[in-house]
Design goal:
- The protein is an alpha/beta fold.
- The protein has helices at residues 7-15, 73-77, 93-105, 121-130, 148-162, 175-181, 189-204, 243-252, 264-281, 303-316, 324-332, 336-345, 351-356, 360-366, 372-379, 402-416, and strands at residues 47-50, 57-60, 81-86, 110-113, 135-138, 141-142, 168-171, 212-215, 220-223, 236-239, 255-257, 292-299, 368-370, 388-393.
- A six-stranded parallel sheet has the order 5-4-3-14-12-13, sandwiched between helices. A four-stranded parallel sheet has the order 6-7-10-11, covered by helices on one side.
- Strand 1 and strand 2 (57-60) form a beta hairpin.
- The two termini are 36 Å apart.
């Protein structure tokens, strides 16, 4: 099994994480920022986090979404965070933990675990025990497979174990995970996720001695916590791409977690205006919303080979059944030719014919392909548009371990901020 964790099938699962009511299915991811031990001596529960790559100190108000203050030249140039996403299929947990430790040492900001081929919380707990600073997040936790009560308690425990480094990403899942894997129905996803997120935020913000009361159409709770949390609250992100789910996320979550195959123009001109309007309508400050984005990446000194790797990954989204999310996004962003080729050839097993008809511009505009310096240059196009890129590595097929496969990806950060 390749050390890139059977990415083709895993990406398909990621892409169908959400199927909002009446909108094209969207990847539903959710994340936010956190870090080391909380400072409990200040009224606002502010915390100082040391960046492993540079000794910058980052601070954020834990009573609201984290907003960093740049304190070094590199951070003044870019506050965009960079993280790694682990799918978990086909590799030992020890290799995932090893890679997270190396990522922390290399200055990566965060690591994420998909809930698909492994659970999310157990790998993150193992990573938490082996690291000190890097942010942790399930990307993304299936709301239909977990009650808000169980999710909230698990998050509070993991936040304590990690010293306050958890971000909690949730989403409605997809038909593959919900119906085929678990036999679950996914009724009313918009109502479900609004209530789930509202209630979950109440749980992870409840102090010892407080009370949580909630009465919704789907969820209800009367509960008093018996554990003192390590900080005032845990950030909750809601996965969203379709406009209706984006509105829900902007109205009730701390972050709008986005998936792969997104150009900076599409995020800036389509997704963020919808989110800003919804946040304002909910009497929230749009500037406080966090926007992480998944990013397909293939780091390779051979640009043509890197592009071919990205194209093959895109084709995998249409195998064995075309995935509406990716078809929608390709067409929305002007790549109908690529979508048509995938629809025509991939389900019949002729993937190479589809790859041959996908223009290089698809890989160049919707992913990160090529040497680290070129990937870093492409990443600069997202500055001021997204808050964090979460790399889904589809390169490194010849690497011996997961860590070896991800080392070139970690080099992007060094290329972005050379010493």
């Amino acid at each position: 099994m390749s050390p890139i964790e059977n990415f083709s099938s895993s990406i398909s699962i990621l892409g169908s994480i959400s199927q909002p009511e009446g909108t094209p299915p969207g990847i539903e991811t959710v994340v936010r920022t956190s870090a080391a031990q909380p400072d409990r001596d200040t009224a606002s529960h502010r915390r100082t986090v040391s960046n492993a790559a540079a000794p910058a100190q980052r601070r954020f108000d834990k009573e609201g979404p984290e907003r960093y203050t740049a304190t070094t030249l590199a951070e003044l140039e870019s506050n965009m965070r960079q993280g790694l996403l682990f799918v978990g299929g086909g590799v030992p947990l020890a290799q995932i933990v090893e890679t997270a430790c190396v990522a922390e040492a290399e200055g990566m900001d965060s690591v994420y675990c998909v809930e698909a081929y492994r659970s999310a919380f157990v790998p993150l707990a193992a990573i938490a025990a082996a690291t000190k600073m890097i942010t942790l997040d399930p990307y993304i936790l299936n709301a239909y497979g977990h009650t808000p009560f169980v999710t909230g308690l698990s998050a509070i425990d993991l936040d304590e174990l990690s010293g306050g480094r958890l971000i909690l990403g949730v989403g409605p899942g997809n038909r593959h995970i919900n119906q085929l894997f678990q036999g679950l129905e996914t009724d009313r996803p918009l109502t479900k996720m609004r209530e789930y997120t509202e209630l979950l935020r109440k749980i992870v913000h409840a102090p010892l001695g407080g009370k949580v009361g909630y009465e919704g159409r789907i969820h209800r709770m009367q509960w008093e916590p018996r554990v003192s949390p390590v900080r005032a609250g845990i950030p909750v992100w809601l996965a969203a791409i379709g406009p209706k789910m984006v509105k829900v996320a902007a109205s009730v979550a701390d972050g709008v977690a986005m998936g792969v195959l997104l150009s900076p123009e599409y995020v800036r001109e389509v997704i963020k205006p919808v989110a800003a309007a919804a946040a304002s309508a909910a009497d929230r400050d749009p500037a406080e919303l966090y926007f992480p984005m998944g990013g397909l990446v293939a780091v390779d000194e051979d640009l043509d080979r890197a592009r071919a790797t990205i194209k093959a990954a895109i084709c995998s989204f249409f195998d064995p059944i075309p995935h509406p999310y990716y078809d929608f996004l390709l067409r929305e962003q002007g790549f109908s030719k690529a979508a048509d080729a995938c629809l025509k050839f991939v389900p019949g097993g002729n993937t190479q014919a589809a790859i041959d008809q996908i223009d290089d511009a698809v890989a160049d505009r919707l992913a990160f392909a090529g040497p680290p310096t070129q990937c870093a240059q492409r990443l600069r196009a997202y500055e001021g548009v997204i808050d964090e890129v979460i790399y889904l590595n589809v390169g490194g097929a010849d690497a011996g371990t997961v860590c070896d496969a991800h080392r070139p990806v970690m080099a992007i950060k060094r290329a972005l901020h050379p010493q």
